[in-house]
Amino acid sequence: MSLLMVPALALLLALPLLAWFASNRKSPKRRDVGTHFIWSRLLERKDSAPQKQRSLDLLFWIIVAAIVIGTAAAARPAIIAAEGTKTMAVLVERVFDTAPEPQHESVVRRAEFLGSGADITYFVRGEIADGPLQNSGDVIVLKAATNQAALSAFMARTGNFNGRACFVLRKSSIDAHQSPRLETPLVNVITNVIPNEKTVQVNYRGTVPELKGGAVLSNESGMLRIKPNAPTVTLTSGGQVITLTKSLFGIGTGTAWTTRQHSALLKALRPDDIAPNVWLGADKQRPCIRILQGTEIDVSGAQVHMDPAHPMFEELPISRVDWLSSRKLMPAESNTIPLVRVTRNGQVLGDFVRRKGDIIEFAADPFSEWPIELAVILLDNSIAILTGQHAGSRASWEITQPTNLPATEAFSATLEQESRAMSFEASLPEVTEQSHWLAILAALACLYAALALTPSEPIK
Amino acid sequence: MMAELFDKSFMRQLEALDAALMRLRGSIGEGITLRAGVLGQSEFRGNRPYSVGDDLRRLDWNAYGRLGRLYIREFEPEQTERLDILVDTSRSMATGDPCKHIFARRIAAAFAFLALKRGSSAAIAGSAAIEGVSRFGAILDELRKAEPTTSTTLGEQLTAIKRAKNLVVISDFLEDTSSLQPLQALGERGCSVTMVQVLSPDELEPSPAGQTELHSLEDDQSIRLPLSPANIVLYQRELEAHLELLGSIAARHRWLHAFVESDSDLHHLFVGKLLQSGGGA
Q: pLDDT tens digits, residue range B74-96?
């Protein structure tokens, strides 16, 4: 049992004060009367006065108890598991049922590396023959049909373990998920870097990382929020150096978008004072938005066909769009997906927009001919189709060095090169606080005291 | 304190009280009848012309006002009657400001003095009867010894009185009314009973206080009560109910019941209360 908040014990200073009040509490004033003959009738009517005296005495001690318990609760007493009692649960999964018998020796070696000194319990799906797992720790067989079911059962049954790890066995490699609880705590380290749209969140332990190329927006509880102001940002903590660079994605257009409208389009998509993160390159770039010189045709009586639910037309006010204003179309091709097709009397005249793999082709340049408010939506949708993200929601920054942070790298280094490590929290904290029970007790005592102190009717 | 209990001032009060009663008897009217056993009065017989040497206190000033001549009031020869006086000596009488027992003993002395002045004998309960004003000092001696230190209740003290013709009981009567049963037995045997109830002002109107330990001198026990205004009102209601009960019992048995506060005076008791009550009896 430990106290996590020792200064709270200062509240106990209230106890001597209470004791002083108690010792100096005015005792009932004595008054001599001839007889209790009349007074006793009051007690007979309602024998409450002695009770009240008793209840006042009881109330005093209840308040004292509430203070003591409340102080103890404020001190956050906790049960901290002893170092030698750590437990670790290891789930051993096979990705393919047809895979050969897992290399259990390798699993045991890695599990014992992870949970050094911990009692290890292995969870496996399906019966296995006696082997290294049984020699290393307890083995529990999960009767689950699939790996997903086995993982769910594992998570449900291992909530009280100090750490959990999952080894996914492939034919030639092992992926490992590991719990950071069993690692040696690192001091002065950046544990996570999360780029957002315009800012970057940096989680760290120890001293505040040194920042170059950005400004600190906030710093609290081991979390730094920075705003980069240079194409390259460097975070340094201890011997660790993390480099963030501007996250660019290229769109090949084949032509230089240098007109005023093109510039406005790019600015509208990603207003950024550092550098544009839409890189426009040659048409060899992939993915690519390609503006073609379509064939001019007679579009009188032509009908435009499209799927309004297609992401290409998301939030686009289609009724305002004149797809045929350029009077240019591309000949229909069999290996393309038409997004905007033009027909007349059931006969295909051509396509205005079509997709060919990671290329979107236009028969003319709507981005310079359309009203800019329509053009920007069309361009943003096009980029989203090609890259999977709208330009406006794409994170601006990415970690370029190193690729793994220490919290996971520590373990992944012990695996094969192609292994991948992920971490997740153990559900049971090592420190079990007891303050909630004490707080409830103190609250109940205070409630009783409050009820007892509620003014009551005089003796009737 | 005891030296002051019956000092010269008190004796002058007794003389004045006697004179006042005599005057009242003459001025209020000859038809007034007081309880002879209580006040030692004798029956009025008539007037006769004043002659030198007559007791000036017996001059009938009303007759002088009507007739312009001095007349002396004459009474029937006084019969020797015995007045028994019981002063409650239970410890409950030792309380009050002024102390109830001091006033109670002075009342008893006044009763005895008036009885002796009128030719009756007087006896403090438990003592031999005294005759003659000249032996009034013996009464006072008895009263001086009647300290409120006994553990016996009023009921027990009344039970000890086996025979009495005229009985005056001076007490706070803060006991259950069952303690008055001996009085009922005496009354059935022809005893004339006068109850003088003495209570102190602080008993009638206790001052409010917080949590108070009420210590009873009578049984040396304590109880704790908050003397809140609400509880004091309740106390006064209970006390009033008890006084009314005593009054109804006295009326039912034709006892004279007079209530007096310990800070009152003898004149107020005898003239203002007893004489009025006796006149109506």
A: 776 555 678 999 999 999 999 99
Nearest to A450 by CA among A136, A66, A120, A68: A66
How many angstroms away from the CA of A47 is the closest CA of chain B?
Answer: 10
Query: At which residue do the structure tokens 């090609």 appear?
Result: A386
Of A191, A182, A171, residue with least CA distance to A90 = A182
How many angstroms separate the CA of residue B205 from the nearest CA in chain A?
Answer: 12
The per-residue pLDDT for range B17-40, each reduced to its tens digit, is: 888 887 776 543 333 334 444 444
Q: How far apart are CA A145 and CA A134, in angstroms?
A: 22
Query: What gap in Å lies between CA A353 and CA A312, rounded to an integer?
Result: 10
What does the DSSP assignment read for A309-361? TSGGGTT--GGG--TTTT-EEBPP-TTSEEEEEEEETTEEEEEEEEEETTEEE
Rounded CA gap, B43 and B34, in Å? 9
Confidence tier at B204 by pLDDT (50, 70, 90): very high
Read off φ and ψ for residue A432, nearest 5 degrees.
-105, 105
pTM of the model: 0.43
pLDDT of residue A455: 54
* Spatial separation of the C-alpha atoms in residues A279 and A281, rounded to whole Å: 6
Q: Which residues pair with B34 in a beta bridge?
A: none
Question: What's the longest Cα–Cα distance across chain B?
Answer: 69
Nearest to A35 among B174, B210, B212 (CB): B174
Helix (H) or strand (E) holding A91: strand A87-94
d(CA B158, CA A429): 84
Q: Which region holds residue B279: left if phi is over 0, alpha if psi is between -120 and 50, else beta?
A: alpha
Q: Which residues of chain A have a CB within 8 Å of the CB of B94?
A: 34
**Which residues in chain A have Cβ-Cβ distances shorter than 8 Å to B235?**
38-39, 42
Tokens for B203, please give them.
């008993």
User: pLDDT-derived band of residue B205, with 50, 70 and 90 as boundaries?
Assistant: very high
pLDDT < 50 stretches in chain A: 97-100, 171-175, 177-185, 273-277, 407-429, 457-460
* pLDDT at residue number A169: 65
What is the pLDDT, as a whole number, of residue A279?
A: 54
Nearest to A459 among B93, B219, B231 (CB): B231
Q: Give the bridge partners for A205, in sequence order.
A: A189
Mean of per-residue pLDDT scores for chain B: 83
